[in-house]
Amino acid sequence: xxxxxxxxxxxxxxxxAAYKAAELTRQLIKQGAQVYxxxxxxxxxxxxxxxxxxxxxxxxxxKQWEHDVSNGMAHIDLTRMVDCILIAPAxxxxxxxxxxxxxxxxxxxxxxxxxxxxxxxxAMNKQMWQAAPTQRNVAQLRADGVTILGPGVGEQxxxxxxAGRMLxxxxxxxxxLSFFTPKLLAGKRVLMTAGPTFESIDAVRGITxxxxxxxxxxxxxxxxxxxxxVTLVSGPVxxxxxxxxxxxxxxxxxxxxxxxxxxxxxxxxxxxxxxVADYRVAEMAEHKLKKDEGGPPAIQLIENPDxxxxxxxxxxxxxxxxxxxxxxxxxxxxxxxxxxxxxxLIVGNLIQEGFGGEDNRVVLFDDHGVHPLAPASKSALAxxxxxxxxxxx
Length: 393
Ligand code: C5P
Description:
Elements: E1 7-12, H1 18-30, E2 34-39, H2 43-46, H3 49-56, H4 74-81, E3 84-90, H5 92-99, H6 106-113, E4 118-122, H7 126-130, H8 132-143, E5 147-148, E6 152-155, E7 161-165, H9 169-180, E8 189-194, E9 199-200, E10 206-207, H10 214-225, E11 229-234, E12 245-249, H11 253-261, E13 269-272, E14 279-281, E15 301-303, H12 307-312, E16 319-326, H13 330-341, E17 345-350, H14 351-354, E18 359-360, E19 362-366, E20 369-372, E21 376-377, H15 378-392
Parallel strand pairs: 1-2, 1-3, 3-4, 4-5, 8-11, 8-13, 11-12, 13-16, 16-17
Antiparallel strand pairs: 6-7, 9-10, 14-15, 17-19, 18-21, 19-20
The structure holds cytidine-5'-monophosphate.
């Protein structure tokens, strides 16, 4: 419910993607937003106002001269009560009108009369998108402080392939969530690790652990939404790359170590969330080990480098944050780890309360003391952690 308490006026204009605005409405509402919909006349040819009325529970505003607002000032009233106007899809014609201050229907009048931010998700054929007037108009909107979401690249309704299609509803939702996130890490470069590592024994087997990567991925997304440029060095997980994050896939602790050390001096903040294997196999077998060749194999292990401790020991280290997943004595072990690795902040959690799941309970340990956070989803905790890190670094 990341949009709890937010009121959004969704403008729908006449493109084929108008049908996706219904799914977008659903997703915005699912995040707690109150959604009001204004449609152009052309949009009503693609999708009926009743759909939006049913989804939002509010009247849909279609015509300038027919509405239920008693003082006849719908265009002013609506914009005064919402936190933003989001137009999705926005046709080339709509964008041209907005860029030039034309107010010849209810939606364009709402936009001109607004005192709230405007977000626009363009949707059009690739030639229309590339056309010089459209590019001029979009540049003008950007210069006017409008947030442009997309467009996406791919197959278009007309069968052509290129830039111009509307972003998917989930991507637009992400744009809205990012828009409302305070930019606490603006200008900061964040380097992170997440997920497990996989230490090969032979061609098919290895040593790994049950880390899902969810906490690290939630933190990467929260850092990106907070305005940081984020590089995520990830062990093998089956999670989609968070929006706006550069992801580098690695397998073993040695790969992770190399990828991190190549980038650590450029980072302002390093967050080690990965469950890095403490040991790796001294010599990986070239071929699959066979059961019938001399009994159980003796596997010799050697220690992996401690990535976090090495980053913290750099001459000019970034602000380092570690994680301590323990099965008992959380405070004692987490504090010991923080001092041993010489890092300013460590996030402790009990394995039985978070490892591999959707929710977590964490306690922060830093120079100022012990800060327990209430149990919550990993994304809610990630937001609080980013706020704590932004205050500390
Ligand atoms: O020493 P331990 O594995 O318990 O410490 C956990 C913290 O150290 C985590 O932040 C983890 O990402 C990091 N770590 C690391 N390299 C290792 C082992 C742990 O960066 N080889």
